[in-house]
Structures
1.
Amino acid sequence: MCEMKVIKKIKRQMELERQRCQSCGMPLCYDPKGGGSEKDGRRNPDYCSFCYEDGAFKDPELTLGQMQQRARELLRKRNQPWYIRAYMAHRITTLKRWRSN
Ligand SMILES: [Zn+2]
């Protein structure tokens, strides 16, 4: 395949993945609903539909540590190597929901 095409593809994927859920870190392009929702039905583009629905977090008691644990388990199920798991666990600490903690 033409090299330029490959680079374009990768760039587009990066664009898509830039917008991540600010709670769990999942790229919103993988969210079937395309984002969280507010009480009045508007989209909330900061969070995914698994974390945020009807104007509130689905799991408001969740701690940063628990979220990291969830991400680790999910990645382990997908057979991701340890360094990806460590990277994602770190990435979660940089998301908007957890930054103030
Ligand atoms: Zn999420």
2.
Amino acid sequence: MAPAYCRNSGKGQLIHVNCLAKPSPALSTDELSPFSYGLQRTAPDLHNRVDNDLIRPKFPGMSMKIPEEIKQDFSREPLDAKSLLPDPFDQFEAWFSQACAENLPAPNAMSLATASADGSPTVRMVLLKVYDRDGFVFFTNYGSRKAQQIAENPRVSLLFPWFSMGRQVTITGIAQRIPTAASLRYFLSRSRGSQLGAWTSDQSSVISSRTVLETTLARMKQKFSTGEIPLPDFWGGFRVTPETIEFWQSQPDRLHDRFVYVLDDANSWSIERLAP
Ligand SMILES: Cc1cc2nc3c(=O)[nH]c(=O)nc-3n(C[C@H](O)[C@H](O)[C@H](O)COP(=O)(O)O)c2cc1C
């Protein structure tokens, strides 16, 4: 059963649920009513109270104030079907080049969402290092949580959040390890410090303190004091081969433009407009 702060009051249709703000255990049953929190509202209630209070918890200290002056509207020229390139990789390249030209911070930073076999999701940023018609490549530790989840369930999603351009690109697809020779080529192009970092961090494992990292780094520096640092067998690239690629362009009044390219069985891309 859903926790109390997520449940419908039974007085009407559930229209808003915010499960992030949990009630303190000290509150009375009456206070646990969804109405006292403003966490969920029913349709009749909405008719009476259509103001900000609907989404703001009543209790001081339970909500974070979001400054009203935060810039939200990054609308620019609309995106229409005619201006889209037929191939999504060409379209990605056009937008990625623009993101680089407009000096966006880390335009190659992308969120990578993975899920374990039982469906538990996790998301984190990784850096896109290569892309071509075969897919989008990032590098990581093959023992990390993300790699373990990919081993259980190769279906992943990527998101490029190009806020200041009012754009996002979302990708769904299948992640696979790239060949060791390709990982080696990339590893050798990295700085010695980054190479030692890869050897040092047993990524996603629990460690007692930073000293663990510093001690291991010192040991690795000694171990690889001369010559080329070899590629760790627990480190390398994943390529995400896309099945869908969606381009989202901010437009006024939340009527954004969205186009998704979908790979069909004949290996060609169709394009659909989606409601924002
Ligand atoms: C901007 C940015 C870029 C990152 N790039 C990478 C990356 O390319 N590879 C990587 O393994 N971790 C990268 N990280 C760290 C990951 O977000 C994450 O903390 C780490 O990979 C462990 O994730 P996991 O425990 O879910 O496997 C980056 C973090 C940030 C904020």
3.
Amino acid sequence: MSDICRGRVAVVTGAGRGVGRGHALELARQGACVVVNDLGGSVDGTGADVGPAKGVVDEILALGGEAVANTDDVADWEGARRLVETAIGAFGRLDVVVNNAGILRDRMLFNMTEAEWDAVIRVHLKGTFAPTRWAASYWRDEHKAGRPVDARVISTSSTSGLFANPGQSNYGAAKSGIATFSIIAAKELARYGVTVNAIAPGARTRMTEHLGGRPAPPPGEWDDRAPENVAPLVAWLAGPASRDVTGQVFLVGGGRIAVARGWERGPGVDHGARWEPAALDDVVPALVAEAGPGGRPEEQPQARSAEAGPGGRPEEQPQARSAEAGPGGRPERMTGA
Ligand SMILES: NC(=O)c1ccc[n+]([C@@H]2O[C@H](COP(=O)([O-])OP(=O)(O)OC[C@H]3O[C@@H](n4cnc5c(N)ncnc54)[C@H](O)[C@@H]3O)[C@@H](O)[C@H]2O)c1
């Protein structure tokens, strides 16, 4: 067995179940010491239970790995600080933060309550920012003290945000926000030896089981939608070999890994003076027509099954190697901003 994370210390949020549990177990298998964070609530974020985090710690210890539990709410400012301090207190350092914790409160926006909006934005967006913020200030201090930093942040986006899934305006806004947050953080933290990437996973978990999809196959058969399939990319991103990969968003599920490409400047026009609004009658429709159908939801079939897969089918993910995706995401091409 390989041990590509030997000697590293990782925090995984929402690691008591689903995709995050897979990350924690794989990181431990690869030699990392793991802080297993999980509040232990229900899918909609209500409630709390120490059982899920403790259960995964027990699994890691049974494998011969090292782990401790933390049950703080990742979106709580002081809770996020305690989470980072738990790693440093238990294992003496912190190298990797995997922001994975998440909840769902799906609703069409005309019916969405303030509480449904706030809860989802809070757990995903602030719950990604807060642990990253405390880890980043720790790594900056380490760097300034002359100690070498080779650290990682890996956060969790979703095709729901990247491809705009109706019925999830709260969740999708948070998830596309996490993708952009990651790209900005990659630019800010590059000088301190920290890479920042995001993943958009696809797997069968309690969050997605209601969507139908393929049931689990009989034991022993390849399970394309097993949550553990997302973990190898995260373990690789957590390890030293990924040090030149930053500011990227990956689609991952089953055996598929693809680089997501983001916004780009499309067709445009410069009038050289302030427009008369009525003159745009022809201009804007012509620009939209020239830009092509990319932006229209009905022409993006993968947008309908937000959590059902990573953009899913291999033929929809032609760029399987990040070198093929070009330099758009590398910080040295993005500085100057
Ligand atoms: N399953 C998929 O196909 C899929 C697709 C796209 C994105 N995602 C994202 O992947 C991540 C993991 O989802 P999952 O499918 O494994 O769901 P899950 O519900 O099985 O696991 C999420 C875990 O996060 C924990 N959690 C929730 N709020 C928390 C908080 N405030 N603090 C600490 N822990 C908290 C929950 O207790 C739970 O154990 C989420 O961010 C989700 O949005 C999943």
